[in-house]
Amino acid sequence: MNFTAPNNLNRRSLLTGLVAAPLVLRFGQAHAAVPTLFTQGIASGDHAPDGFVLWTRLASNPLAADGLGGLSAPIETFWEIASDDGFRRIVASGRALATSETAHAVHVEVTGLRPARPYWYRFTAAGERSAVGRAITAPRHDADVDRLRIAVASCSNWERGYFSAYGHMADEVPDLSLFLGDYIYEYSLTPDRADQIVRPYALEEATALAGYRNRYALHRTDPDLQRLHAAAPAIAIWDDHEVHDDYSGIWSKTAGLAPRGFLARRAAAYRAFYEAMPIRRTGGGVSSPLYRKLRFGNLAEFFMLDGRQYRSRQPCVDGVTGGKGKLVTDALCAERLDPARTFLGFDQERWLYDSLAQASARWTLLGQNLVLGGLRIGDGGADTQYWTDTWDGFPAARDRLTRTLAAVRPSNPVVLSGDYHSFWTNDVKRDASDPSSETVATEFVGTSITSGGPPHDALMQVMPYNPQVKYFEGRRRGYMSLDISPKQMTTRYRAISDVRDPKASVATLASWAVESGRAGAVPA
Ligand code: FE
Ligand code: CA
User: Fold this and answer.
1) What is the distance in A from the centroid of ligand 2 to the CA of 420?
2) What is the pLDDT of residue 281?
3) In 10 A of CB 420, how many CB atoms?
4) Measured in angstroms, how far is the CA atom of residue 305 from the centroid of ligand 1?
């Protein structure tokens, strides 16, 4: 979502700038010198009881115009995993060939490790050694677990500010980091908004593979983001800006662009995402669904959703003209209510409902991109407006999900959402159009790492019509930190002092608690 100029994203930035060189990482041995191949850092992700995914990408010139990082020939890359941070006891190792087919990205799906413990990893290529990363294996699926700490991020717009929030997430040394979408933004601010640019991209809008690759490559030169990825395994999903603002399934919101014209762009963007993220490719690489389940012993199960790829189009949008610019409609839009429309796609819906019926961990965590709890912009009458890009544009699909939660009653469902560049604590109602209906889940919406917030005061004016929203704050940037135990989940809203300050401080703005057995958060 773009809150200020949704029609104005296609013009190319004329600005230029410099890319910061990566700094020394926090974990393990420091580099002897500035890296020449490991300019992109390292990462782990998609934890399992017996392993995780290891990731790096070799690039001598990360922003080379062809998107290939300044490399062409294949490079043999070695990886090592140790049970200690000094690498005295190496427990697994192997080699992978980095090739230009994947822009020299390396994914290793490690298996055979012991559950519920930390490991340290590093890569070596062409005589150069990477920094050291720390990963963890999950506990066995039925193991008793008494605590889990998760840092949750969304919406990191490079030109809007520095990624100090990522650095503070790393400092918390979470067990896991969640990325809920808008990890990159495909566009650049137009020259008339140059005053809002904190650090320029020096890249044109990403529309094809090289451009998308270079957006990730630029982000991965950031020392705070490198530190976060080195600190904990990631679980990542996407939202719209990994491809294009407010796209929906096969539909671009670009005026006159038919699905067949958009799908090549979408495919390039998806490919770059899979290359850049520490995600499992087992089962078909880019064709693997992004939606998936992960577990952390008997304490938590994650249902990570893809809320973009399979969607119906937003309702009441005029595709020929490109719509009204703002994706908002009123209560008279009958298409909005059509039960034939879907948010997750019917295959993913079936998978999710079946999975929720089988969920057996204490906490059932739904990681997804867009606010679920709903927002009435008005008193509920005929002139009430709804954002059509969020679940509010897909109320029948939301009803199917909330009815399923009410019917199958998974243990302690908590929805974690991104996109809205603001903090929200919501009751998710059995019927979102009826505030008096049962609360079937708790929702926490994280703010952005850097991206500009929504109009705070205007939204506060409609909050009286939205009793399901217990807390809203649109003026601050940051992330969410979750501490989970069998009895309680505590969510801290962590706000940074200033996106323009690369060394911004962080403070807890508010804390919310959910007690096991009781849906809905209370101030902690
Ligand atoms: Fe965003
Ligand atoms: Ca978004």
Assistant:
1) 7
2) 78
3) 27
4) 16
